[in-house]
Design goal:
The complex is a heterotrimer of chains A (136), B (297) and C (236).
Chain A lengths: L14 H15 L7 E2 L2 H8 L3 H13 L3 E4 L3 E4 L3 H26 L4 H13 L4 H7 L1
Antiparallel strand pairs in A: 1-3, 2-3
Helix pairs in contact in A: 1-3, 2-3
Chain B lengths: L4 E12 L2 E7 L2 E3 L3 E6 L5 H8 L7 E6 L2 E2 L3 H7 L3 E4 L11 H9 L7 H10 L13 H13 L5 E5 L7 H16 L3 E6 L2 H7 L2 E6 L2 E7 H7 L1 E7 L13 E7 L2 E6 L3 H10 L2 E8 L2 H11 L1
Parallel strand pairs in B: 4-9, 4-10, 7-8, 8-9
Antiparallel strand pairs in B: 1-2, 1-3, 1-5, 5-6, 10-11, 12-14, 12-15, 13-14
Chain C lengths: L1 H34 L5 H26 L3 H8 L2 H6 L4 H33 L6 H26 L7 H20 L5 H6 L17 H24 L3
Helix pairs in contact in C: 1-2, 1-5, 2-5, 2-6, 5-6, 5-9, 6-7, 6-9
Classes of the chains: A mainly alpha (136), B alpha/beta (297), C mainly alpha (236).
């Protein structure tokens, strides 16, 4: 398959979210293209040694978000639609900005864990959550 | 109403004289999930499992296993045909050969999977004509597990399954469990090995001193539990931050470390109201959640 | 396959006891024949009466050993979790063990006298067949109570050596106690044939003591039922 997902069970982030992120990342970088088939639930679960429910949750959520098409009996197929493609572009831009910010913070002397915790804290208690939601 | 729980207990209790092994246990294990049963040694995990399987008589309360009341000996006996169980000490009859053991076990269960059994015997490299009491500990563990894994039961109950296995064996076991789960088998296993639980469990139950302290999906635990480190300009009393969800507070001068099972954002909001200088939020792995939960109890 | 398991568990014990009983019976009879003149029938039957007592001792020891084991012993060695997780009732598990034990006990009871009969036959001093049948029936019919006692003790005592020691101790005590106060009900005297033997011919004479043997079998049944109840109520 050429896809190597690596889930880290000890970080405290749900495994299905990690899997979703990695699948999404693969579609953004082009490792997964429109129409590609992802491994079956059982196959992927055995390969990653995680509960099949984790794979099911990830696939279902991605289908809900429009990234995957679950065809009953055939499997899970990548579905990079136009809207998702532009979203992917937004994400690319955002990641470039983040990369720059992270480089700056690192230059200021912050360690990676400190940067991650700061993000976590801000995400949990954003300054103006309602306004950000409205912008969307 | 169809019950989607394979195990359901109500105030299940067991006392041995003055010592209480299990108290007021209200446990529900859902179908088609991998549920892990965590707890220290002597927390009551094995006793609970033995009560469910009719080996130990409860002192109080009741329980349903695959819908049948465990107090009904006949019903419990029939239900055992649909359950696969491996005890903590991986019991086998020493005087039987590997082949005799497999023949023996398979004769009781219509759900026995002959092809899978052959596959596992090969994979585990178990010599079929050798007597069990001459096998190494690792081989015995694998054979005991094989007797349960080479079946297609509705429920698979394992008590410390990876004990006695080397890392390769553990990896094989976890892969096998995940494959069984994908086949629709509900898995309920007790373990000390937090790392394994974190990988394959959907749901976690933490038992301590006979009491169920945590009973939640692992994802929910990951999304709710947080460690929040706060720094204030002056000393703040802990009482001010004891809101719903806060389990433990440790204070060191003007710094406070809060272990919260939920409502992390409310805790941070309260901290900001009290004029906190710096807020540091960390997600928690299962090991820390377990240790903090059990140590405070 | 529970029968197969019970056989595997008792196989060594059974075959060893079988060999010992067979050897003893054959050697004793052969020696007795060589020792006596063909016409001294009474002395031959007296020696056989004595042989029977030895056979009984060996038989009781054998069935006590055969009655050992079971779930309580398995609990001590750690395999009870496997046996009890099987989809069979505890009564069934014990029942199979009892059935196999009874069959083995009968075999162990029939063999010595069959051997004695054969050896005496080939030696030119054939014993009357009704005598063989009488002795065998007394031993197996009356003696089952000892097997039942062993089963009962194995359901209560966990130790590998403690259990047979307790069982044998109880056999001794019961025999002595009954002989002292309830001689008429002494099982030992019944199965050795003391109540039926004619002291002049040393032949077992008169009616077969059906009532007594039946009473002994009832006692055996009660002890077995008690064992089942005990196993059913125990926590493992």
């Amino acid at each position: 398959m050429g896809l190597f997902f690596k889930l880290n069970p000890t970080t405290g982030q749900p495994l299905y979210l990690q899997l979703m992120q990695q699948i999404r990342h693969a579609t953004e970088t082009g490792a997964l293209r429109d129409g590609d088939q992802l491994p079956g639930i059982r196959t992927l679960a055995e390969e990653l040694v995680v509960s099949p429910n984790t794979v099911v949750k990830a696939y279902c959520e991605l289908q809900h978000q429009g990234l995957l098409d679950l065809r009953h009996g055939s499997g899970a197929f990548v579905c990079v639609r136009r809207r998702t493609r532009s979203l992917a572009a937004d994400v690319q831009t955002a990641r470039r900005r983040l990369r720059n910010l992270i480089d700056e913070l690192r230059e200021d002397g912050l360690r990676d864990e400190e940067i991650e915790r700061a993000f976590e804290a801000e995400l949990l208690h954003p300054a103006y959550p309602a306004e950000i939601a409205r912008k969307r | 109403m169809i019950d989607t729980h394979v195990i359901r207990t109500r105030d299940l209790a067991k006392s041995y004289g003055s010592a209480t092994a299990v108290r007021d246990l209200n446990l529900s294990v859902g179908k088609n999930r991998v549920t892990a049963f965590l707890g220290q040694n002597g927390a009551g995990k094995s006793t609970t499992i033995k009560m469910l399987l009719g080996m130990v008589r409860p002192s109080g309360g009741e329980a349903l296993l695959l819908g049948k009341n465990i107090a009904d000996a006949k019903g419990n006996c029939e239900v055992r045909r649909r359950v696969a169980y491996v005890a903590e000490n991986k019991p086998l009859y020493g005087y039987m050969t590997v082949e005799q053991t497999v023949s023996f076990a398979s004769s009781f269960y219509p759900d026995w999977q002959t092809d899978l059994a052959s596959h596992l015997l090969n994979q585990y490299k178990l010599p079929s004509q050798q007597k069990v009491n001459t096998l190494s500990k690792g081989m015995r563990t694998k054979l005991a597990l094989l007797l349960a894994l080479a079946r297609r039961p509705e429920l698979l109950i394992l008590d410390e399954p990876s004990e006695g296995l080397d890392p390769v064996g553990i990896e094989q076991l976890l892969s096998m469990l995940v494959a069984r789960a994908a086949d629709g088998i509900t898995i309920f296993f007790s373990s000390h090995q937090i790392a394994e639980v974190e990988r394959i469990a959907d749901h976690v139950c933490i038992l301590d001193n006979g009491r169920l302290l945590v009973d939640a999906s692992l994802d929910l635990l990951r999304q709710s539990y947080r460690r929040i480190n706060l720094s204030f300009t002056s000393v703040i009393s802990e009482r001010q931050l004891r809101i719903a969800g806060v389990q433990k507070i440790r204070t060191d001068g003007r710094r406070m470390s809060i272990f919260a099972s939920q409502n992390a954002d409310a805790v941070i909001a309260r901290a900001r109201d009290l004029g906190v200088v710096s807020v540091d939020v960390a997600r928690l792995g299962l090991r820390e959640i377990f240790l903090e939960t059990v140590l405070e109890n | 396959m529970l029968y197969y398991k019970a056989w595997l568990e008792t196989r060594s014990r059974f075959l060893t006891c079988l060999t010992v009983l067979a050897l003893f019976s054959a050697v004793f009879t052969h020696h007795a024949q060589g020792f006596l003149h063909p016409e001294w029938k009474t002395d031959f039957y007296r020696l056989l009466f004595i042989a029977h007592e030895y056979v009984i001792i060996l038989w009781i020891l054998s069935v006590v050993l055969l009655g050992m084991g079971g779930l309580v012993r398995e609990h001590a060695t750690g395999t009870s979790s496997l046996s009890l997780s099987l989809p069979v009732s505890r009564a069934h598990l014990l029942g199979v063990r009892i059935a196999v034990g009874i069959i083995e006990a009968i075999a162990l009871g029939v063999l010595p006298w069959a051997t004695i009969f054969l050896v005496s036959y080939t030696g030119g001093m054939p014993i009357l067949f009704p005598q063989v049948a009488f002795y065998t029936a007394l031993l197996v019919g009356g003696g089952m109570a000892y097997f039942a006692l062993a089963i009962l003790v194995s359901s209560l005592v966990e130790g590998e050596y403690t259990a047979p020691a307790v069982a044998i101790g109880l056999v001794f005590l019961a025999t002595i106690a009954f002989d002292a106060w309830l001689r008429r009900f002494n099982l030992w005297r019944l199965i050795t044939g003391s109540f039926s033997v004619d002291r002049t011919t040393y032949l077992l004479a008169g009616h077969f003591p059906w009532l007594a043997v039946l009473a002994s079998l009832c006692a055996a049944a009660l002890m077995l039922l008690a064992s089942v109840r005990i196993i059913q109520r125990r926590d493992f």
